[in-house]
Amino acid sequence: MCRISTILGITALCLLGTDTPTSATPPVDDPPYTFRSDVSLGRVDAQVVDADNHPIRGLRVQDFILRVDGKPQEIRNFQSERMPVDVVVLLDVSRSMEPHIQRVASASHEALRALGDQDRVAILVFDRFTRVRMPFRTGRQDAERELESLLQRESFEGGTDITRGMLDTASYIAQDARRDARRAIVIVTDDETERNRDEASVLQALTRVDSVLSALIAPDALNTGRGSDRRSLTDEYGPRDRYGNRIPPGFGSYRMRGPHTQSAGTAEIANQSGGDSMDLDQGSAFERTLARIRERYALYFYLPDGVQPRESSSVEVELSNAARKRYPRAEVHYRRSYLAPNASTDTERPRPVRVSVPL
Questions:
Q1: Is the residue at 128 inside a domain?
Q2: Rounded to the nearest 5 degrees, what angle is found at the Cα of 210, between the Cα atoms of 207 and 212?
Q3: Which terminus of the chain is less hemmed in, N or C, by CB atoms within 10 Å?
Q4: Which residues make beta-bridge pairs with 89?
Q5: Contact yes or no for 186/16 (Cβ under 8 A)
């Protein structure tokens, strides 16, 4: 019997042994390979969608091919929906976002049912500053109440720094998320920021805390008459952004900007992190986003020999030929880089996040 454990920040899969046999004869059915406790494991999460951008469920370990730094790696363990998840719902509470946050709060009862009993939810809000409205909790009713409460407690009058909000949330995850849980951020924003855009820093922070970003983009919150930030290319399967990711229905090809704002690149960051983005106007966008986070596949692999803590590796995940025949137009979404875990506490001090305590 094997299980995943975390020792000193390094994820390892340990051989725990089996029940003691009644005789000295060794068991006949040995496992095909043995996990060693002195070998660290890396993990990459992947989502597979069909031509209509719907998740493909029921895939098996033999349906995937994994490469690290260009070299094929055996997938040593494989999980789908059984892993617990820590989800941060990150809400833009800047000017004109109130009706969109109301939509999310109204949809929360059905949406949060997509999560399991062992999953946890935290709620953070941001304008020019980031606040923790609810720390990680397992109770879905607590999250519903907090979403309703913040509509009265937030003024929705401030400016916005989306990049800062995402970086602060990564710091919060570093401090409070469980090591053995899948991590995810669901950001609700109109993607209009007054401050500088820094996709590279946000992606590095997400890689460092092993978190995926999913974006729910509010349409035209500032009434600027624009569609979307994405600069589209078109191929046989439809429009794509500059990174080659398929653009969901409902997005336009260009977004006009207000005089003092610019795109924070939220949709692009989400796609590069291995997540996705949806138009918040799509009826069940919040529920579908949480369900997708739950439906991701976890692929475990031995770290390359000699890898150093915090060392970055490139990762490639694709479907096998047999899986491609079954799903010829499927796409695999995953983060393209992996950061080796540190054997001790990280030396980088996380940026503190302001805590907002309900009255």
A1: yes
A2: 85
A3: C
A4: 123, 186
A5: no
Which residue intervals of 97-161 are DSSP H helices?
A: 98-111, 140-153
Q: Are residues 305 and 289 in the same domain?
A: no
Residues in the chain: 359
> With contact defined as beta carbons under 8 Å apart, do 176 and 122 qualify?
yes
Q: Clarify whether residues 36 and 138 are in a common domain.
A: no
If we measure between CA atoms, which residue out of 300, 308, 305 comes closest to residue 342?
308
Q: Which domain holds residue 310?
A: 2-18+32-78+297-339
What tokens were used for 108?
């929360």
Same domain, 288 and 303: no
Q: Residue 184, class by beta-carbon neighbours within 10 Å (0-12 exposed, 13-18 middle, 19+ buried)?
A: buried
Q: 338 φ, ψ to 5°?
A: -135, 135
pLDDT (tens digit, 9 = 90+) per residue, 216-245? 999 864 454 444 443 334 444 454 543 445
Clarify whether residues 213 and 99 are in a common domain: yes
- For residue range 317-346, list pLDDT tens digits in order: 999 999 999 999 999 999 888 877 765 444
Q: How many domains does the chain have?
A: 2
In the chain, the amino acid numbered 288 is R
* b/e sequence 194-208, b meaning 16+ C-beta within 10 Å: bbebbeeebbebbbb
Identify the band that residue 35 occupies on the pLDDT scale cut at 50, 70 and 90.
Answer: very low
pLDDT per residue as tens digits for the range 236-273: 445 454 344 554 443 333 343 455 788 999 999 999 99
Note whether residue 356 is domain-resident.
no
* Helix (H) or strand (E) segment spanning residue 272: helix 266-272
Q: How far apart are CA 2 and CA 19, in angstroms?
A: 12
Q: State pTM to two decimals.
A: 0.75
For the chain, give the mean pLDDT.
Answer: 78
> Do residue 132 and residue 175 come from a single domain?
yes
Same domain? 145 vs 277: yes
- Report which of 120, 202, 192, 146 is spatially closest to residue 169, judged by C-alpha positions: 202
Q: Is residue 24 part of a domain?
A: no
Q: Do 148 and 199 fall into the same domain?
A: yes
Question: Quick one: which of 277, 276, 167 has its CA closest to 228?
Answer: 277
Across 279-297, average pLDDT: 88
Question: Domain of 262: which CATH number?
Answer: 3.40.50.410
